[in-house]
Design brief:
137 residues, alpha+beta, 31% helix
Length: 137
Amino acid sequence: MTEISTTAHLRHPGALVGTVIAIGLAGSALALHAREGDPQFTLAQREAQPIAASALQELVLTSSDPRPGHRGRARAARCQGSAGGGGLGNPWSCVVRYPQPPSVRFSVTVRADRSIFGIAATRSGGRLTLSGCCVRD
């Protein structure tokens, strides 16, 4: 009668452990590399970081006076976010002082890509717009 052994004898058990570890590390590296190139993942991470009023003000300060007949860059800006606006703080209220008075109050929206768009009503019923890219982290 022939006996059949049910236990396997490994000659190099360290090789099996090393192979499993190498496969795990390679899979982890591939997963991390795939996430780096995913624009939606990157955008979601940026959205998770709140917008600072100072960063929005810095961008608004690069704007030129949008009023007809007026010239010059913004001289000062003061922005305040909405309490319920999430990480982006929308809508923002930004009061911008240009070289010629009066100051202009814009309602500014920060988009997911951190670009901005703002609207201000004029006394004559028109509207002024403000746009730019992009609010720094």
